[in-house]
Amino acid sequence: MRRHTFLGAVTAAGVVATALALGAPGFAQSSAQRPLQIYVVDVEGGNAVLYVTPSGETVLIDTGNAGAAAVRDADRIAAAAKDAGVTRIDHLITTHWHGDHFGGMEEVVKRLPIKQFVDHGPNEQPPNPQQPQAPDFSRTTYPMLYAAGTHMIAKPGDKLAVAGLDWRIVTSNGDVLKTPLAGAGRPNAACAGVQPQDPDASENARSVGSAITFGKFRVVQLGDLTWNKELELMCPNNRLGTADLFIISHHGLAISNSPPLVHALLSLQGVLLGSKPSTGQAFELPSQVSATSHWPVSARQGVPPGCTPSAGQLALAPVHVSALSQTSVEPRQRVPAGVS
Ligand SMILES: [Zn+2]
Ligand SMILES: [Zn+2]
Predict the structure, then answer these.
(1) Rounded distance from Cα 251 to ligand 2 centre (Å)
(2) What is the pLDDT of residues 124-162, one digit of tens each?
(3) How many domains does the chain contain in total?
(4) Which residues, at least 6 apart from 140, have a Cβ–Cβ distance to it below 8 Å?
Protein backbone atom coordinates (compact mmCIF):
# COMPACT_ATOMS: atom_id res chain seq x y z
CA MET A 1 0.00 0.00 0.00
CA ARG A 2 1.18 3.44 -0.79
CA ARG A 3 2.42 5.39 2.17
CA HIS A 4 1.37 8.99 2.12
CA THR A 5 3.54 11.47 3.85
CA PHE A 6 3.18 15.14 4.42
CA LEU A 7 5.16 16.15 1.36
CA GLY A 8 3.53 13.42 -0.67
CA ALA A 9 0.17 14.88 0.23
CA VAL A 10 1.29 18.34 -0.82
CA THR A 11 2.41 16.95 -4.16
CA ALA A 12 -0.89 15.14 -4.65
CA ALA A 13 -2.85 18.32 -3.86
CA GLY A 14 -0.81 20.21 -6.43
CA VAL A 15 -1.55 17.57 -9.03
CA VAL A 16 -5.28 17.74 -8.33
CA ALA A 17 -5.24 21.52 -8.62
CA THR A 18 -3.49 21.20 -11.97
CA ALA A 19 -5.99 18.65 -13.17
CA LEU A 20 -8.91 20.90 -12.29
CA ALA A 21 -7.29 23.89 -13.93
CA LEU A 22 -6.96 21.91 -17.13
CA GLY A 23 -10.56 20.79 -16.94
CA ALA A 24 -9.71 17.17 -16.33
CA PRO A 25 -12.64 15.18 -15.02
CA GLY A 26 -12.85 14.42 -11.33
CA PHE A 27 -9.81 13.36 -9.43
CA ALA A 28 -8.62 10.80 -11.91
CA GLN A 29 -5.03 11.55 -12.77
CA SER A 30 -4.00 10.93 -16.31
CA SER A 31 -0.37 10.09 -16.81
CA ALA A 32 0.14 13.63 -18.09
CA GLN A 33 -0.52 14.95 -14.60
CA ARG A 34 1.28 12.35 -12.56
CA PRO A 35 4.81 13.17 -11.43
CA LEU A 36 8.07 11.64 -12.36
CA GLN A 37 9.40 9.90 -9.26
CA ILE A 38 13.08 9.52 -8.60
CA TYR A 39 14.26 7.21 -5.84
CA VAL A 40 17.85 7.65 -4.74
CA VAL A 41 18.27 4.31 -3.05
CA ASP A 42 20.70 4.07 -0.17
CA VAL A 43 23.15 1.42 -1.26
CA GLU A 44 25.78 2.57 1.19
CA GLY A 45 28.58 3.90 -0.92
CA GLY A 46 27.38 2.54 -4.23
CA ASN A 47 24.79 3.88 -6.60
CA ALA A 48 21.24 2.94 -7.49
CA VAL A 49 18.65 5.44 -8.67
CA LEU A 50 15.19 4.39 -9.78
CA TYR A 51 13.15 6.57 -12.13
CA VAL A 52 9.43 5.88 -12.37
CA THR A 53 7.67 7.76 -15.14
CA PRO A 54 4.09 9.00 -15.01
CA SER A 55 3.00 6.01 -17.09
CA GLY A 56 4.78 3.59 -14.77
CA GLU A 57 7.77 2.87 -17.00
CA THR A 58 10.96 2.33 -15.02
CA VAL A 59 14.62 3.07 -15.51
CA LEU A 60 17.16 1.91 -12.94
CA ILE A 61 20.64 3.39 -13.02
CA ASP A 62 23.07 1.01 -11.31
CA THR A 63 22.39 -1.78 -8.86
CA GLY A 64 24.50 -1.12 -5.78
CA ASN A 65 27.30 -3.13 -4.27
CA ALA A 66 28.72 -6.59 -4.86
CA GLY A 67 29.55 -9.32 -2.39
CA ALA A 68 27.77 -9.58 0.91
CA ALA A 69 26.04 -6.24 0.31
CA ALA A 70 24.37 -7.35 -2.93
CA VAL A 71 21.34 -8.92 -1.22
CA ARG A 72 20.88 -5.88 1.01
CA ASP A 73 21.12 -3.46 -1.88
CA ALA A 74 18.83 -5.48 -4.16
CA ASP A 75 16.29 -5.65 -1.33
CA ARG A 76 16.40 -1.88 -1.03
CA ILE A 77 15.99 -1.38 -4.76
CA ALA A 78 13.05 -3.81 -4.67
CA ALA A 79 11.60 -1.86 -1.74
CA ALA A 80 11.76 1.32 -3.79
CA ALA A 81 10.01 -0.42 -6.70
CA LYS A 82 7.35 -1.72 -4.34
CA ASP A 83 6.83 1.75 -2.90
CA ALA A 84 6.32 3.05 -6.43
CA GLY A 85 3.94 0.21 -7.24
CA VAL A 86 6.04 -1.18 -10.09
CA THR A 87 7.06 -4.79 -10.62
CA ARG A 88 9.70 -4.68 -13.31
CA ILE A 89 12.66 -2.67 -14.60
CA ASP A 90 12.12 -1.61 -18.20
CA HIS A 91 15.64 -0.27 -18.66
CA LEU A 92 18.71 -0.92 -16.54
CA ILE A 93 21.63 1.41 -17.21
CA THR A 94 24.90 0.18 -15.77
CA THR A 95 27.08 3.27 -15.79
CA HIS A 96 30.39 1.38 -15.59
CA TRP A 97 31.96 -1.84 -14.38
CA HIS A 98 32.90 -0.98 -10.83
CA GLY A 99 31.47 -3.25 -8.17
CA ASP A 100 29.62 -0.46 -6.36
CA HIS A 101 27.57 0.14 -9.53
CA PHE A 102 26.84 -3.30 -10.98
CA GLY A 103 27.34 -5.44 -7.88
CA GLY A 104 23.70 -6.08 -7.00
CA MET A 105 22.58 -6.89 -10.54
CA GLU A 106 22.21 -10.65 -10.18
CA GLU A 107 20.17 -10.17 -7.01
CA VAL A 108 18.00 -7.47 -8.58
CA VAL A 109 17.17 -9.78 -11.49
CA LYS A 110 15.86 -12.32 -8.97
CA ARG A 111 13.44 -9.72 -7.62
CA LEU A 112 12.49 -7.65 -10.65
CA PRO A 113 12.54 -8.78 -14.28
CA ILE A 114 14.67 -6.48 -16.45
CA LYS A 115 13.65 -5.88 -20.05
CA GLN A 116 16.53 -3.86 -21.48
CA PHE A 117 20.18 -3.82 -20.36
CA VAL A 118 22.18 -0.71 -21.27
CA ASP A 119 25.93 -0.24 -20.81
CA HIS A 120 29.04 1.22 -22.48
CA GLY A 121 30.42 -2.11 -23.64
CA PRO A 122 32.66 -4.59 -21.81
CA ASN A 123 34.81 -3.74 -18.81
CA GLU A 124 38.02 -1.90 -19.72
CA GLN A 125 39.37 -1.34 -16.21
CA PRO A 126 43.19 -1.70 -16.30
CA PRO A 127 44.17 -4.71 -14.17
CA ASN A 128 45.72 -4.08 -10.78
CA PRO A 129 48.86 -6.22 -10.53
CA GLN A 130 48.51 -6.20 -6.73
CA GLN A 131 45.11 -7.83 -6.85
CA PRO A 132 44.06 -11.23 -8.14
CA GLN A 133 41.62 -10.78 -10.97
CA ALA A 134 38.10 -11.98 -10.40
CA PRO A 135 36.20 -13.29 -13.43
CA ASP A 136 35.05 -10.31 -15.46
CA PHE A 137 31.33 -9.96 -14.77
CA SER A 138 30.75 -7.94 -17.95
CA ARG A 139 32.02 -10.82 -20.10
CA THR A 140 30.78 -13.79 -18.10
CA THR A 141 27.64 -13.39 -15.99
CA TYR A 142 26.25 -10.27 -17.66
CA PRO A 143 25.64 -11.77 -21.13
CA MET A 144 23.67 -14.56 -19.47
CA LEU A 145 21.50 -11.98 -17.72
CA TYR A 146 20.82 -9.81 -20.76
CA ALA A 147 20.01 -12.88 -22.83
CA ALA A 148 16.65 -12.81 -21.01
CA GLY A 149 15.95 -9.31 -22.34
CA THR A 150 17.49 -6.96 -24.85
CA HIS A 151 20.93 -5.38 -24.82
CA MET A 152 22.00 -1.90 -25.90
CA ILE A 153 25.50 -0.46 -26.00
CA ALA A 154 24.95 3.23 -25.45
CA LYS A 155 26.61 5.96 -27.50
CA PRO A 156 26.49 9.69 -26.82
CA GLY A 157 23.50 11.18 -28.60
CA ASP A 158 21.44 7.98 -28.31
CA LYS A 159 17.88 8.35 -27.13
CA LEU A 160 16.61 5.79 -24.69
CA ALA A 161 13.03 4.92 -25.59
CA VAL A 162 11.21 5.96 -22.42
CA ALA A 163 7.66 7.20 -22.96
CA GLY A 164 7.05 10.69 -21.64
CA LEU A 165 10.73 11.52 -21.12
CA ASP A 166 13.45 12.72 -23.45
CA TRP A 167 16.23 10.46 -22.20
CA ARG A 168 19.55 11.28 -23.85
CA ILE A 169 22.83 9.49 -23.42
CA VAL A 170 25.49 12.21 -23.11
CA THR A 171 28.61 10.19 -22.26
CA SER A 172 29.61 6.58 -22.80
CA ASN A 173 32.82 4.57 -23.05
CA GLY A 174 34.96 7.69 -22.86
CA ASP A 175 33.08 9.55 -25.59
CA VAL A 176 31.02 12.66 -24.95
CA LEU A 177 28.06 14.30 -26.65
CA LYS A 178 29.20 16.41 -29.61
CA THR A 179 25.93 18.11 -30.54
CA PRO A 180 24.46 20.20 -27.72
CA LEU A 181 21.06 19.32 -26.31
CA ALA A 182 18.20 21.48 -27.53
CA GLY A 183 18.63 25.00 -26.20
CA ALA A 184 22.16 24.33 -24.96
CA GLY A 185 25.59 25.03 -26.45
CA ARG A 186 26.42 28.48 -25.14
CA PRO A 187 29.99 29.36 -24.08
CA ASN A 188 30.63 28.16 -20.54
CA ALA A 189 32.21 30.87 -18.39
CA ALA A 190 32.97 28.34 -15.67
CA CYS A 191 35.64 26.78 -17.89
CA ALA A 192 37.93 29.77 -17.45
CA GLY A 193 41.23 28.81 -15.85
CA VAL A 194 40.22 25.21 -15.20
CA GLN A 195 42.92 22.74 -16.16
CA PRO A 196 42.62 19.06 -17.00
CA GLN A 197 43.84 16.58 -14.42
CA ASP A 198 46.00 13.51 -15.03
CA PRO A 199 44.41 11.14 -17.56
CA ASP A 200 41.98 8.70 -15.97
CA ALA A 201 42.29 5.25 -17.53
CA SER A 202 39.72 3.75 -15.17
CA GLU A 203 36.19 2.66 -15.85
CA ASN A 204 34.97 5.89 -14.25
CA ALA A 205 35.89 7.88 -17.35
CA ARG A 206 33.73 5.51 -19.42
CA SER A 207 30.58 6.07 -17.35
CA VAL A 208 27.28 6.15 -19.18
CA GLY A 209 25.84 9.59 -18.46
CA SER A 210 22.24 10.64 -18.99
CA ALA A 211 20.39 13.93 -19.36
CA ILE A 212 16.71 13.35 -18.77
CA THR A 213 14.16 15.97 -19.73
CA PHE A 214 10.60 15.82 -18.45
CA GLY A 215 8.60 18.78 -19.64
CA LYS A 216 10.55 21.78 -18.42
CA PHE A 217 12.48 19.75 -15.91
CA ARG A 218 15.92 18.29 -16.51
CA VAL A 219 17.99 15.94 -14.38
CA VAL A 220 21.60 15.01 -15.11
CA GLN A 221 23.22 11.83 -13.81
CA LEU A 222 26.72 10.92 -15.00
CA GLY A 223 27.78 7.95 -12.86
CA ASP A 224 31.41 8.20 -11.76
CA LEU A 225 32.46 10.36 -14.71
CA THR A 226 35.71 12.13 -13.88
CA TRP A 227 37.07 15.63 -14.33
CA ASN A 228 38.64 15.47 -17.80
CA LYS A 229 35.54 13.99 -19.40
CA GLU A 230 33.43 16.63 -17.71
CA LEU A 231 35.64 19.27 -19.32
CA GLU A 232 35.31 17.58 -22.73
CA LEU A 233 31.54 17.66 -22.34
CA MET A 234 31.16 21.14 -20.91
CA CYS A 235 34.02 23.22 -22.41
CA PRO A 236 34.33 25.55 -24.12
CA ASN A 237 30.58 25.31 -24.71
CA ASN A 238 28.04 23.90 -22.28
CA ARG A 239 26.40 21.10 -24.25
CA LEU A 240 23.91 20.19 -21.52
CA GLY A 241 22.43 23.56 -20.57
CA THR A 242 21.13 23.82 -17.03
CA ALA A 243 19.69 21.16 -14.79
CA ASP A 244 17.02 21.34 -12.16
CA LEU A 245 18.42 18.28 -10.46
CA PHE A 246 21.98 17.00 -10.55
CA ILE A 247 22.72 13.62 -9.05
CA ILE A 248 26.20 14.18 -7.71
CA SER A 249 28.85 12.33 -9.68
CA HIS A 250 31.28 9.82 -8.25
CA HIS A 251 29.99 9.87 -4.68
CA GLY A 252 30.89 13.53 -4.36
CA LEU A 253 34.61 13.02 -4.83
CA ALA A 254 36.61 16.06 -5.86
CA ILE A 255 38.15 14.30 -8.90
CA SER A 256 34.69 14.67 -10.40
CA ASN A 257 32.10 17.45 -10.02
CA SER A 258 34.34 20.10 -11.60
CA PRO A 259 33.24 23.74 -11.68
CA PRO A 260 32.61 23.70 -15.45
CA LEU A 261 30.09 20.94 -14.86
CA VAL A 262 28.49 21.85 -11.58
CA HIS A 263 28.46 25.63 -11.90
CA ALA A 264 27.18 25.54 -15.46
CA LEU A 265 24.47 22.98 -14.77
CA LEU A 266 23.26 24.89 -11.76
CA SER A 267 23.83 28.40 -13.00
CA LEU A 268 20.16 29.32 -12.77
CA GLN A 269 19.12 27.26 -9.83
CA GLY A 270 19.41 23.70 -8.95
CA VAL A 271 19.27 20.90 -6.56
CA LEU A 272 22.01 18.47 -5.84
CA LEU A 273 21.36 15.02 -4.62
CA GLY A 274 24.19 12.84 -3.57
CA SER A 275 24.72 9.33 -2.47
CA LYS A 276 25.74 8.24 0.97
CA PRO A 277 29.36 7.28 1.45
CA SER A 278 30.33 3.87 2.65
CA THR A 279 31.24 3.60 6.29
CA GLY A 280 34.60 5.11 7.02
CA GLN A 281 34.93 6.80 3.68
CA ALA A 282 35.33 10.52 3.78
CA PHE A 283 32.48 12.13 1.94
CA GLU A 284 34.22 15.04 0.42
CA LEU A 285 31.97 17.36 -1.46
CA PRO A 286 33.81 19.65 -3.78
CA SER A 287 34.11 23.02 -2.10
CA GLN A 288 32.23 24.79 -4.83
CA VAL A 289 29.05 22.88 -4.12
CA SER A 290 29.32 22.24 -0.42
CA ALA A 291 26.63 24.73 0.48
CA THR A 292 24.07 23.34 -1.89
CA SER A 293 23.99 19.64 -1.42
CA HIS A 294 23.33 16.96 1.05
CA TRP A 295 22.40 13.36 1.12
CA PRO A 296 19.68 12.21 0.84
CA VAL A 297 17.42 15.21 1.07
CA SER A 298 17.88 17.74 -1.64
CA ALA A 299 18.17 21.40 -0.87
CA ARG A 300 17.65 24.35 -3.10
CA GLN A 301 20.77 26.16 -4.01
CA GLY A 302 21.74 28.63 -1.34
CA VAL A 303 19.60 27.02 1.31
CA PRO A 304 21.65 25.25 3.93
CA PRO A 305 20.60 21.64 4.22
CA GLY A 306 18.77 21.15 7.46
CA CYS A 307 19.21 17.47 7.56
CA THR A 308 21.61 15.12 9.22
CA PRO A 309 20.19 11.75 8.26
CA SER A 310 20.91 8.71 10.30
CA ALA A 311 21.42 5.24 8.95
CA GLY A 312 18.44 2.96 8.81
CA GLN A 313 15.89 5.37 7.45
CA LEU A 314 17.52 6.28 4.21
CA ALA A 315 16.67 3.58 1.76
CA LEU A 316 13.94 5.54 0.08
CA ALA A 317 14.18 9.18 -0.80
CA PRO A 318 11.84 9.67 -3.71
CA VAL A 319 11.64 13.01 -5.39
CA HIS A 320 8.40 13.93 -7.09
CA VAL A 321 8.82 16.08 -10.13
CA SER A 322 6.14 17.90 -12.02
CA ALA A 323 6.53 18.23 -15.77
CA LEU A 324 4.77 21.55 -15.61
CA SER A 325 7.29 23.31 -13.46
CA GLN A 326 10.96 23.95 -13.79
CA THR A 327 11.42 24.31 -10.10
CA SER A 328 9.10 22.07 -8.17
CA VAL A 329 11.45 19.43 -6.99
CA GLU A 330 9.96 18.27 -3.74
CA PRO A 331 11.67 15.53 -1.82
CA ARG A 332 8.92 13.45 -0.34
CA GLN A 333 9.40 12.94 3.34
CA ARG A 334 11.72 10.05 3.93
CA VAL A 335 10.00 6.84 4.75
CA PRO A 336 11.49 3.97 6.72
CA ALA A 337 12.79 1.41 4.34
CA GLY A 338 11.45 -1.65 6.06
CA VAL A 339 14.72 -3.33 5.28
CA SER A 340 17.95 -3.26 7.23
ZN1 LIG B 1 31.41 4.40 -7.72
ZN1 LIG C 1 33.58 3.87 -10.35
Answers:
(1) 9
(2) 999 888 887 888 999 999 999 999 999 999 999 999 999
(3) 1
(4) none
